[in-house]
Design brief:
Order of helices and strands of chain B: HEHEEEEHEEEEEEEE
Structural class of chain A: alpha+beta
Oligomer: heterodimer
Helix content of chain A: 25-40%
Radius of gyration of chain A: 23 Å
Number of domains of chain A: 1
Strand content of chain A: 25-35%
CATH architecture of chain A: 2-Layer Sandwich
CATH class of the largest domain in chain B: Alpha Beta
Largest sheet of chain A: 5 strands, antiparallel
Largest sheet of chain B: 8 strands, antiparallel, barrel
CATH class of chain A: Alpha Beta
CATH topology of the largest domain in chain B: TATA-Binding Protein
Helix content of chain B: 10-25%
Shape of chain B: rod-shaped
CATH topology of chain A: TATA-Binding Protein
Strand order of the largest sheet of chain A: 1-5-4-3-2
């Protein structure tokens, strides 16, 4: 009886150890923030920046929205089953009268892991998706 | 496979599942980002903006630095949280206009690790920059310190035999014991009961001040 109990206890302990070992193997999640590109686009209306921001954020992340009517946009990454998002980004649009264009900036943040991309990579995707010309 | 084999396999599976559920019970942190605060100054240079950006960030965060020299774009992080890494950050980005400058504020925090949200952080940084009410932010929880030989809640450290001072035991975080001659053993602590595996199993009792343990033929004193 005692031997059977001991055997079961050993098997249970091994199971727990394996399970704990497998879950503890992952690196702790770290916050990664990246100050992305800044571009000046000449001879384009602010509405073009807003449209580009919404389109870029929607293509890379989810729930793109403008904060009021400010030209400042944000979106978050795909959410897990609990509704937690592990990536977010902001695109700021600001009109520049002297060049009849606008200023646009990209800022990104991720929690990696579990997010597969770094904040830098995320901002790179957004900048490419925005697709505007201009100069940094 | 024999019935005992199946039973053991079932027990192993149950233990694995229970262990996984137990270890996955912590809620994962989520990224919380705040945008929308922008300030236009009709006067002042980009260096003025940069100086204010740095001081505003340093008022609430640590190590404010320009992302590249002369860019006017500043970034700072919170101190390390319980996981040993920052749980929040803010950027202040300055851009020179024909007259004055425009500056934007973007903040991000990990929730629930960070004790306040990104909106609260951004509001404070922005108000520090251009004036406004400042709300006190809760301190970042400090990382759990690694137990040392002087922590009385565990046995990590060096112990000296009261009967034979030349005999010492070094106990590490993983439960290993090594004596002054290089002989290995193990330790465990549950409440004040110490399980000491060293030339057999011994049960000792840890004193209430955590500085002594006695029993099983041993009397040891913590060396701090």
């Amino acid at each position: 009886m005692a031997k059977t109990f001991c055997n079961r206890a050993v098997v249970l302990a091994v199971g727990f150890a394996l399970a704990i070992g497998s879950t503890r193997a992952t690196a702790p999640a770290a916050l990664d923030v990246f100050v992305g590109a800044r571009k000046v686009v000449k001879n384009q209306p602010l509405s073009a920046c807003n449209a580009g921001a919404k389109s870029a954020l929607s293509s890379v992340l989810q729930n793109a929205s403008e904060v009021g009517d400010t030209g400042e946009w944000k979106a978050s990454g795909p959410s897990d089953a609990s509704g937690n998002a592990f990536a977010a980004a902001a695109i700021h649009c600001y009109p520049l009268d002297d060049v009849q264009g606008y200023l646009v900036t990209f800022t990104c943040a991720v929690q990696a892991p579990p997010n597969p991309d770094t904040a830098s990579a995320l901002c790179g995707k957004l900048t490419d998706a925005f697709g505007a010309g201009g100069q940094r | 496979m024999k019935p005992h084999g199946w039973r053991r396999l079932s027990l192993l599976a149950v233990a694995l599942a229970a262990g996984l559920v137990w270890c996955s019970a912590d809620a994962p942190a989520a990224v919380d980002l705040s945008v929308g605060i922008r300030y236009v100054s009709p006067q002042g240079s980009i260096s003025d903006c940069g100086a204010k950006a740095k001081s505003s960030l340093d008022a609430f965060l640590r190590g404010a630095a320009e992302s590249s020299p002369g860019s006017g774009e500043w970034l700072a992080f919170t101190s390390n949280g319980v996981a040993g890494t920052p749980t929040g950050a803010a950027t202040v980005r300055c851009y020179a206009l024909s007259k004055g400058y425009v500056v934007t504020f973007t903040c991000v925090v990990q929730l629930p690790d960070n004790p306040y949200g990104s909106d609260a952080l951004c509001l404070d940084v922005a108000h520090k920059f251009y004036g406004g009410a400042i709300t006190a932010l809760a301190p970042i929880p400090t990382p759990t310190p690694i137990p040392t030989g002087c922590a009385t809640t565990n046995l990590v450290g060096t112990w000296v035999s009261d009967d034979k001072p030349s005999l010492t035991f070094t106990m590490d975080l993983t439960g290993n014991v090594t004596d002054s001659d290089g002989v290995s053993g193990n330790w465990g602590l549950k409440g004040t009961t110490v399980t000491f595996t060293y030339y057999g199993n011994h049960t000792l009792t840890l004193s209430s001040d955590g500085k002594h343990m006695r029993g099983g033929g041993y009397s040891l004193t913590r060396k701090c």
